[in-house]
Structures are given as structure tokens and as C-alpha cells.
Amino acid sequence: MATKRLARQLGLIRRKSIASANGNLGRSKSKQLFDYLIVIDFESTCWNDGKRHHSQEIIEFPAVLLNTSTGQIESEFHAYVQPQEQPILSEFCMELTGIKQAQVDEGVPLKICLSQFCKWIHKIQQQKKIIFAAGVSEPSTSEVNLCAFVTWSDWDLGVCLEYECKRKQLLKPVFLNSWIDLRSTYKLFYRRKPKGLSGALQEVGIEFSGREHSGLDDSRNTALLAWKMIRDGCLMKITRSLNKVSSVLPLYSVISNFINRNIYPLVPLVKKMAIISLCFVFTQMWLSLACLQGKNYNDCMLNTASQTVTTEK
């Protein structure tokens, strides 16, 4: 016991845990819902000049495939993306991300990048028998391996990619509609608010490897943090899903059908009633003005009636 206490005081036991995390050694304590995690961390156009700019565009699209049983990164995807709305990077953006103007100039538009990414996804699906399933509550017992996406916050998939695809009218892959927000998962599991990705790594005894705000390095380090959390007993679950919006579609369809069948046929009748009502209102206004000029209201009505009879004759 004295030796163990001394080792803990010297930090040897903690260092052993850190080495395991960095070296991908050991195995997870509990069976995870997902056999694989795909970690994504976009880099986008940005400015710090205080001016109002257009919405951000993705300029680096990285993804790493993490095995939740071994902690190893088994595959990677990486591409530089050519911004279309603001093609010239700011000095601040290049300094922050380390991405050069020539790299995005030689990159591909987001539409092509998404196509390349889908090909990579299809390849690892075939190789590792991966499927994506958002509503999972128990580990898979079949021969297929369940997989989920992981991001550090909801910004990457919930804001950046979502709105850029809408602005540019691009078809976003459906499997990117659900993900695990590792930042919120970290906060709930360790019961403390992380000070950024680098701070979260430091708090669990892991040193950030590579360059901060490099999309690929951020993805690798996020995967490393996820593996550490898994080894500490954290169960990775989907925290955000845009697919919930689709649950209202059946109700929308019912309402739409009801309107088409029952309301639209009444539109001509409604229009007629509206015209008659407007005519009546204007007539009453005219009569009221006439009476204000000294005429008797009943005389006005009689004159109007007599004019009508004369017109009919």
C-alpha cells in the first residue's frame, strides 16, 4: 500500500494511464453501443476585423475512424475545400488554421468533397460492415458494426455544414443528421465544464498532439479524448439528431391532404362571400357619409332602393 501511495504521489500511476491513452493500449471497461466512431472537425473561413461578413464556408473536411474496442484509428479522410462565396482567405484565418490560400485554391468545391466523403464512407462500410443507426439503446448483437459521428460541440454538423448545404442547395448525406456532441458528453460525464478541446485533454492528463485548429489534428485529438472517456467508463450516446424534424411529416401530410380535399374546393365560394361583404361595407360607409351631410338615413335608403328599381326597368 505504501508503494502504491508513493507512486500516486509521484504521478506514476497517472502517467501509466496517459501512456495507455496515447498508445491506444488497453480495452474499454463497458460494452459500447457503437463499435466505431467517426470524428469530424471542420475548419471554416473566419475573420477578426469586426466587419460583418457572409456566412462561413468549410475549407478543411477531415474525418477519422475510431475503433471503440481497441482505441485505434483505423482509417482517415481529409480534403481541402474551395470556398465559393468568399474565395480569398483572411490573414487571420490562415494564421489560425495554418491553411494557405494555395491549398484551398487547389481544393475541391463542397459538392465534390461530399461526394468523395461518401465514397470513403461506402468503402469503410464494405470493409468493416458498418451501418449507421441513431436510435440505438443496446449494443449490436448481429454481425454488423454500429457507427456514429462525433464532433466537439454541435457547430460542425448542426450549424456549419447544415446551413452551407442549404445556402448552396446541396444534398447533405442523411447519415450526417445525427451525432455525439463530445463536449456536452464530457461535461455530463466528468461533471465539469471543459475549457476547449485542448483544456479537456489536459484535464484528463493528455497532451494535445499536433497543431490546434488544424482540422485533421483536432479530429485525431478528439478521437483520443473519446477513447480516454470510453476507458473511464463513459457510454457514448447520440446527443443530437436532426431527423426528429421528419417525425412531423406524417402530420403535415395529413393536414395538407385535408386542405386539398376540403378547403380548396370552397375557395370560389369564399371569394364570392368576401366580395359581397366588401360591397356591403362600402355601401354602408357611403350611406353614413351621405347622412352626415344632412340627409335622413331612411331617405337615403329609399333613394337607393328607387334607383335600383329604375335601373332594373
Automatic annotation (TrEMBL):
Keyword Ligase: no
Exonuclease domain boundaries: 36-235
Residue spans crossing the bilayer: none
GO molecular function, a single term: nucleic acid binding
InterPro entries per UniProt: 3-5_Exoribonuclease, ERI-1_3'hExo-like, Ribonucl_H, RNaseH-like_sf, RNaseH_sf
Pfam families registered for this protein in UniProt: RNase_T (PF00929)
Keywords linked to the UniProt accession: Exonuclease, Hydrolase, Magnesium, Metal-binding, Nuclease, Zinc, Zinc-finger
Signal peptide region: none
Cofactor: Mg(2+)
Keyword flag Nuclease: yes
Family classification: Belongs to the ERI2 family.
Protein name: ERI1 exoribonuclease 2
Species: Saimiri boliviensis boliviensis
Lineage, broadest ranks: Eukaryota, Metazoa, Chordata, Craniata, Vertebrata
Gene name in the database record: ERI2
